[in-house]
Write a structure and sequence with these properties.
This protein has a domain of 61 residues. Helices cover 51% and strands 0% of the residues. It contains four helices and no strands.
Length: 103
């Protein structure tokens, strides 16, 4: 069967990811998840757990004593909310969530 002058052959299948070999990718992924990555993730997990326990203990001490005992890194508005005067704390209260504009 010959092609007529007005028709063309269908395009050949195009590989969307040239050079991609799933078997090689899987082998590379398995080699990356070696003992070094496991140890690094364990260290990161312990650091995160220690930071969470420190923050929880600092907030517990602050709540029980009524003042800041251990620093937890409050900045700007959060520091003003705990250390500022009542006038600073009540500033812009009419625009806060839960406050009606008209009664």
């Amino acid at each position: 069967m010959t092609d007529s002058p007005g028709t063309s052959a269908p395009p050949a299948a195009v590989d969307p990811l040239p050079g991609f070999d799933p078997a090689k990718w899987e082998a590379d992924l398995r080699s990356m998840t070696s003992q070094g990555v496991s140890q690094a993730s364990a260290v990161l997990g312990f650091l995160l757990a220690a930071a969470a326990m420190y923050t929880a203990f600092a907030l517990l001490m602050e709540d029980s004593r009524g003042r800041e005992v251990l620093p937890i890194g409050r900045m700007a508005m959060a520091r003003q909310a705990t250390h500022g005067s009542l006038a600073i704390q009540l500033r812009d209260i009419e625009r806060q969530a839960g406050v009606r504009r008209t009664l």
